Amino acid sequence: MDVSLTAYERAQHLFPDHGCLTWIRTGASDEAFAGLVRAFGGDPATAHPATWEDAEGEAYDDLADDADGIMLAAWHGAWTVVMELFNARGRSLRTLRDLAADGEAYSVGWTVNGVVSVTYVARGELVATFEPADLAGIAPASGRDWLAGLPVSEEQWRRHWFGAALAVGEELSGARVDGSWLRREHLCVQLHPLPPRPVTPADLLDADMRAVAERDPRIGAIAADPTPAKLPEIILVAAELAVATTGLEGPPIEEAMRFIAAGDRGETAQETRNRLFRLRDRYRAEARAVPGAMPGHDTEHGRLLLKERAVQALIYALRPGADLAEVAQETVEAAGETHLREDNGDRERERVLNVVTYYLRTGMSPW
To answer: Taking each helix axis from N to C terminus, what angle separates 217-224 and 346-362, rounded to the nearest 10 degrees?
Structure first.
């Protein structure tokens, strides 16, 4: 793997600054290829031979008025490799799930601003999605087993994400996507806007999130009917998670939780919120006074910082005059920063709250 990883590191400059590569194992039939092209928003009847240079020229000079992107696709046995310019539809979990209903799909997307995402789906289920700069944030947590089984180390992901990501694509498919691949003719297809598609609860949850929703009636009720009426419950559950994982206690915390449970953001609740601001600042100051800077629950410094984040979650939860969806998003995000436990499902509970809140704010799946 070291040989191909080095080759990809050297070839990165040949690729666009903004792009997406997707490897899909659907079989080598014409029918499977046509379905793949349609899933990306193309018409298989318009596929024509082109190198990557040809495709780039077509994208900038000859793109049809109703087209909004272009893809280059190459068969490699049972695998098809798709390179996109402008669009990054290979980053869509819904698209990957559809394409990999009976197979596998692996996607690497990146932007000129340095935003990188890696996603792997097998048999219609999300196995792992992560940013190479934040491997600890892999979702779902069970995806760490998949990541650990790859012939690429965490140090290699962090040192050169592009080389590591493309080396994994080669490991899965057997296809080397390098400068030579870009110079060869593949099939070029112009892409068009995809028709809108309703989001269902099934689109929001992966297998780990569905499992915790089945075990936890409160989470299950939120996920089964993700409507604005669920926002107060989302805020309350997120606040409870933050308090429980950090061990927050005392009169201001108890008062805040009572107000949050009642949905009360009135004048008295704001007095409690002001006390929370002082408590948050106290934890922050105490953390700065403790030697060391290790995050997490295992050091005094880390525990104090997590308490500060938990108090901030309650402050968000009691914010007056704000849209409830914004309050929910802020509260859930702050709760997610308290290093929630994984062994009891709290991390997956927070992930459910996060995706449902995103859906309620945008009408779309975060995937």
So the answer is: 20
Task: Work out the average pLDDT over 214-222.
Answer: 94
* Cis preceding linkage at 232, omega within 30: no
Sign of the four-CA dihedral 76, 80, 86, 92: negative
Global pTM reads 0.73
Asked whether residue 63 carries a pLDDT value surpassing 70, the answer given is no
Cα 80 to chain centroid distance, Å, stands at: 23
Spatial separation of the C-alpha atoms in residues 205 and 364, rounded to whole Å: 13
Tell me if 26 sits within 8 A of 81, measured CB to CB.
no
Lookup result for tokens 């009917």: 225
324-359 as b/e, with b when 16 or more CB fall inside 10 Å? Answer: bbebbbbbbbbbbbbbbeeeebbbbbbbbbbbbbbb
Cα separation, 246 vs 81, in Å, equals 45
| Amino acid present at 314 | L
Distance CA 241, CA 247 (A): 10
Contact of 203 with 105, CB cutoff 8 Å: no
Please say whether the dihedral angle defined by the alpha carbons of residues 267, 270, 274 and 279, taken in this order, is positive or negative: positive
Cα first-last separation, the chain: 30
